[in-house]
UniProtKB/TrEMBL annotation:
It holds the Pfam family Trypsin_2. SMART domains: PDZ (SM00228). The chain crosses the membrane at residues 6-26. Residues 269-357 form the PDZ domain. Keywords: Hydrolase, Membrane, Protease, Serine protease, Transmembrane, Transmembrane helix. One of its GO terms (molecular function) is serine-type endopeptidase activity. One of its GO terms (biological process) is proteolysis. Belongs to the peptidase S1C family. This is 2-alkenal reductase.
Amino acid sequence: MTQTTGSGWRSWMVIFLVIGVVWLLVDRYRYVLYDPDATPRAITPRGDLAGDEKTNIEVFQHASPSVVYITSLAIQRDRFSMNLHEIPQGTGSGFIWNSQGHIITNFHVIQNASGAKVTLADHSTWDARLVGVAPDQDLAVLSINAPRSRLKPLPIGRSAGLQVGQNVFAIGNPFGLDQTLTTGIISALGREINSVSGRTIPDVIQTDAAINPGNSGGPLLDSAGRLIGVNTAIYSPSGSSAGIGFAVPVDTVNRVVPQLIRHGRVVRPGLGGRFANDATAQRMGINGVLTVDVTEGSAAQAAGLQGMRRNRQGELVFGDVIVGIEQEPVGSLDDLMRLLHRYNVGDTVRVVIVRDGQRMALPVTLQALN
């Protein structure tokens, strides 16, 4: 026992001795480590910014004042007082459409919300009113009562002439971080994605610009700072950006938004007829959309489209089979609706049909559908 205790004291003495030596060495050489005459190093001139950097900066400076932060609200009842309160439900992005205070965002950003608030780039926050929604295109229009001096609409471009490889810019509020710029290229054109209503959104733009939760509803811009799409979805196993983002094309936005502002809903252009579902047409061996009947006084009747009928012998005769709109083929009801949605009420389109084995084209002036 005595031997063990003595060995322990010797160990402690060695430790204290080592600490003392280290302290003496540090104290001796600390004045060697420090330089009382140290000053900041001279700055190396960087030269001019690269051309692409200048473009990035210019696009952001011009477009960011038009991008807004949207907070959707939900009603919650206080468990103690039983009073109702509005609380934040989610966040997203949007942009200023015009100087009247109309704000564009995705439908899914404000879906099921009891209200919304819009925060402008100057950090002022405004109560928003819902003007109209288009779930099939995942678009919504809000309105705020802000002074015109605070409202800077985005310039509008076209999506019809876009090319894969073009530079694009996304501005939004990913993860609640407002006024965030990401850059990339157009990765593909003509994609199709499903909207929240289950309908197909055609002609969607695919980009590798980082799109994350919170970017939804924000603008996709070209290198001239013009709106070319509304960021709406990502493909990602993790829920964050994987370099595959999708934007509703601006040509769709520019067609739908005025209808939402005028009517609060999309006025769907159509032919004015009843058509067989795809399963029925397939069972009959029909490749296209079978016209079952034509509504009295409709655009289809005025153009001469024929539904199913009986001949003089009492035999049932197939109605016209729609196989194309203009130059685009039609193989299903979804194809027909997708193609018609590219046009406005009052537009005249060539409807290609097969009647009694003969192929022909009928000019139809599209009507508004209820």
